[in-house]
Amino acid sequence: EPGLATYDPGFVNTASCRSAITYIDGDAGVLEYRGYPIEQLAESSSYLEVAYLLLNGELPTSDELAGWTHEVTHHTFLHENLKQFIQGFRYDAHPMGMLMASVSALSTYYPDAREIADPENRRLQITRLVAKMPTLGAFAYRHGQGKPYVYPDNDLSYTANFLAMLFKMSEQKYNADERLIKALEVLFILHADHEQNCSTNAVRSVGSSQVDPYSAVAAGIGALYGPLHGGANEAVLKMLRRIGTVGEFIEGVKAGKEKLMGFGHRVYKNYDPRATIIKKACDDVFAVTGVNPLLKIAMELEKIALEDEYFISRKLYPNVDFYSGLIYEALQFPPEMFTVLFAIPRTSGWLAQWQELLMDKDQKIARPKQIYTGARTRDFIPIEKR
Ligand code: SDX
């Protein structure tokens, strides 16, 4: 219509922001946290060290890392009432729904969390959330398994403690294997932050109202739950399991019958650098657990898609979710836990972005603009005349 601003349906008008945390070059397939290439961090760092980097802007000294690790380790427990809250869910409740609800409930345990103007208070709430997410995720998992919850063990590292809370006294016998703990560290590092993605935008938007960080992170978990975002890793395994012949499936995708889950990205129009690293981590994990039989189908799908004009012309490449589910399944996580495994490490990125938002004196409450396409002013019509 005349005068209507042009509107690109692919551009969801979200709150724009300045950020110094994560840099992505989608065409070149580059990802850097505070300037450090993701490949170097995945190779040489630990998740808590990367979380410190995202939150503080610099890699920690050994004393700083020891202090941060000590703080996080001593905030892993949950109030017993919160455990009862989780026990109130149905036996088959989806763990992402449980995680979103219990993180939101956490805000009621820490009323001081609303004092977000105080940097020390912000830091305490950030530490609590980074520390408690694995415990909440593990409790949700054990609830679904009908097994007793396993309390945190402060003698273990962040990821080893998470695996122990999940799999202690269970048939999964290799969760203490150093190679698997390292593989999970790498996966956590790769999922820690990713610039202004859908869930981070939700955290920033909700956080811009100056609500407490638990409520903002709960909003991020809700966004990540969606199959087009973090839920894609669960959707990939379901897709791989029901593929009859790969060629036929690809033709179905090209006919628009469905999407190739784990492919495509809002920003990467090249290979997602995280997918490259995760594919390598597959080899390390499968050396311990045995090869996931779905890997063969995934690699065949990738090979065909990377040579097919439909995908090439649309710049569709594997993203972070294409291979991660294969590792999670080999570690005997049920599919509904895959997105929880995304939310736990992403919490440090969400909180770094939330903190940055609050420290930006020019940042205002999120209020995206719209292009109005509805009817303009007109007179009311009495019901008898309609
Ligand atoms: C994550 O933003 C982030 O950073 C997110 C994330 C993070 O770390 O936070 O990286 C994590 O969410 C990764 C993405 C996980 N989602 C999936 O794997 C779901 C499958 N992917 C698609 O739904 C899609 O690729 C999106 C949602 C990821 C991106 O959508 P875009 O960029 O908006 O792509 P588009 O919808 O504009 O598609 C362009 C074309 C369309 O075809 P045409 O209409 O032009 O004919 O490509 C097609 C789409 O139909 N297309 C696909 C496809 N993705 C896009 N066709 C088949 N399979 C796909 N996966």
UniProtKB/TrEMBL annotation:
Keywords: Acyltransferase, Transferase, Tricarboxylic acid cycle. InterPro entries: Citrate_synth-like_lrg_a-sub, Citrate_synth-like_sm_a-sub, Citrate_synthase, Citrate_synthase_AS, Citrate_synthase_bac-typ, Citrate_synthase_sf, Citrate_synthase_typ-I. The keyword Translocase does not apply. It catalyses: oxaloacetate + acetyl-CoA + H2O = citrate + CoA + H(+). It comes from the Bacteria. Transmembrane segments: none annotated. The keyword Glycosyltransferase does not apply. Pathway: Carbohydrate metabolism; tricarboxylic acid cycle; isocitrate from oxaloacetate: step 1/2. One of its GO terms (molecular function) is citrate synthase activity. Pfam families: Citrate_synt. Signal peptide: none annotated. Belongs to the citrate synthase family. PANTHER family: CITRATE SYNTHASE (PTHR42871:SF1). This is Citrate synthase. It comes from Microlunatus panaciterrae.
